[in-house]
Specification:
The complex is a heterodimer of chains A (about 190) and B (about 325). By secondary structure, chain A is an all-beta fold. In chain A, about 0% of the residues lie in helices and about 50% in strands. Chain A is flat and about 65 Å long. Chain A starts with a strand and ends with a strand. In chain B, about 35% of the residues lie in helices and about 20% in strands. Chain B has ten helices and twelve strands. In chain B, α8 runs antiparallel to α9. Chain B is globular and about 50 Å long. The relative contact order of chain B is 0.17. The interface of A and B includes residues 5, 36 and 51 of A.
Chain lengths: ~190, ~325
């Protein structure tokens, strides 16, 4: 169980029989009065966001969730399949649960899959991925200073803004948290 | 990156507050001392570590090996007053377990002062004389707890039935699960409505506000009196831009009454499953010998700096808050 001062941003809690992640925690204590913690929480199954307030004497259950590294295998049209490289166990994840990770999914790459009571509920890409550009306007040689950008489509379907000197077929490093270009991948 | 992580270089070592903020903070500390020096209030120091304290229902002291890091210098300062110190102040750290957020840090700087022979309304003028050195706002209004509660919540805190207080909270979606408020006591409902309805409302007020006449059950170490058929505490809290900045009392000088209140706090603590706290008997002995009539107030210096510099997070004005130690 978690007491009210352990309710911090990023902590995962179980309320009403389902897992939630705390997106924001606010500590409120009027003068000589009691302390409260108000948390904004996101449902890890359906993405719903609600608020809950707890008295300092109350405690909240920790969600039984586990993060594991898994390899993305394939998509069968309905589910996205991942495998634990150590146990070879496979899990299937729905489109809603893949969510914003979709444009970063590449076969054979490793992702962080969150399991709740043994069932996969979400997947997060690594902070940085290296992907090949499948489509963009031809490069402008030598323009490394102007800061101007152009859109480029990556092999996974994601679109990122890249500097003008980058060419189709090149491999680039991308920050998946912001969806932004970092640098040309080292050979 | 990896090498840096190995030898701890990726750890954030730098202060949480910027150097320009720390410079302003130093200037404010200096001016506070100047205010008291100019008006003949003597600076004193009190121990940060004590074996016994003044039990409070809603303040958890930080425990150490065989004592406490003090949550307030009040009992030590009042022993000095009982010894004939005259008007005094103390500025320095105080400690409160589990208080952490944008307006709270478990260790914070408080300036607490006592004016011998003064009443609460004169002390409020003194508080304003000090605060208005740093914050440019209109003259403060004064409202009682009851008036303000009625104005912001729409019902009377003292006479409204439990079900009405409960309904006011539920209607405003304060984030408490449906049906749970039935089991909350009246004081918990007051605090919930205060924290999530009254305080957010005060953020919108341009004038600062002295709130007076708190419920008698929250008198702590202040005197009480009767007002419109209800016993109220002769206390005041100063709010500026929705932030509680200072808490002042017409000081209780009756040792027996003070002892009874501490015993009640400890009985409630035990009832709620918390440990009773050792009472500072030396303070009660001093009070019994005779503490002069006085008014006293404690003001949060970190919050004063926040308001003066228009910053929203207490971590922006403390060099090393709990996230950095």
């Amino acid at each position: 169980m978690l007491n009210h001062n352990q309710l911090r941003q990023g902590t995962r809690v179980e309320i009403g029989g389902v897992p939630w992640i705390i997106v924001n925690a606010q500590f409120v204590k009027p003068g000589k009065g009691q302390a409260f913690t108000k948390i904004k929480i996101k449902n890890l199954i359906d993405g719903r966001v609600i608020e809950r307030t707890f008295k300092s004497s109350e405690s909240v259950a920790k969600a039984d969730v586990m993060d594991t590294n898994m390899q993305y295998l394939y998509n069968d049209g309905e589910f996205w399949h991942f495998m634990d490289p150590n146990s070879y166990e496979q899990v299937a994840i729905s489109e809603a649960q893949v969510g914003t990770t979709m444009p970063w999914l590449k076969e054979q790459e490793n992702y962080q899959v969150t399991l709740w009571k043994g069932k996969a509920i979400s997947v997060v890409p690594p902070a940085f991925v290296v992907l090949t550009i499948t489509e963009c306007e031809p490069g402008v040689r030598g323009d490394t200073v102007s800061g101007a950008t152009k859109p480029a489509t990556l092999e996974t379907g994601a679109t990122v803004k890249v500097p003008l000197f980058i060419n189709e077929g090149e491999r680039i490093k991308v920050d998946t948290r912001t969806g932004s270009y970092v640098e040309r991948a080292k050979k | 990156m990896d090498d840096d992580a190995k030898c701890g270089r990726s750890l954030s070592w730098s202060p949480s507050a910027s150097s320009s903020v720390l410079q302003e903070r130093a200037r404010i500390l200096h001016e506070i001392r100047d205010h008291f020096f100019q008006s003949g209030v003597m600076e004193v120091e009190t121990p940060c570590w004590m074996r016994a304290l003044a039990p409070e229902p809603n303040i958890e002291p930080v425990r150490s090996e065989d004592g406490y890091l003090m949550s307030s210098p009040e009992t030590a300062l009042k022993r000095l007053l009982s010894a004939g110190s005259g008007s005094i102040y103390r500025m320095g750290p105080v400690f409160r377990q589990d208080e952490s957020g944008t307006l709270h840090n478990p260790e914070f700087t408080m300036v607490e002062w006592y004016r011998v022979g003064w009443d609460l309304s004169r002390l409020m003028e003194d508080v304003w004389a000090l605060v208005s050195r740093f914050i440019e706002v209109p003259m403060p209004r004064t409202l009682s707890y009851r008036q303000l509660f009625r104005e912001c919540v729409g019902c009377d805190p003292f006479t409204a039935p439990h079900a009405v207080l409960q309904k006011e909270a539920e209607q405003r979606d304060v984030g408490v699960e449906n049906g749970t408020l039935v089991s909350w006591d009246r004081e918990a409902l007051w605090d919930l409505l205060w924290g999530f309805v009254v305080e957010p409302e005060l953020k919108k007020w341009s004038e600062p506000l002295f709130i007076t006449e708190f419920p008698a059950s929250r008198a702590a170490m202040s005197t009480t009196c009767e007002r419109d058929g209800v016993e109220v505490a002769q206390r005041t809290e100063l709010y500026v831009r929705g932030i509680e900045l200072a808490n002042g009392y017409q000081e209780l000088t009756d040792a027996l009454e003070q002892q009874k209140r501490f015993e009640l706090v400890n009985r409630h603590r035990v009832r709620d499953g918390r440990a009773a706290l050792p009472v500072d008997e030396r303070f009660l002995a001093g009070l019994n010998t005779g503490m002069p009539d006085c008014a006293g107030v404690a003001l949060g210096v970190d919050r004063l700096v926040m308001l003066a510099l228009e910053l929203d997070d207490i971590r922006d004005v403390i060099a090393f808050p709990d996230t950095h130690v």
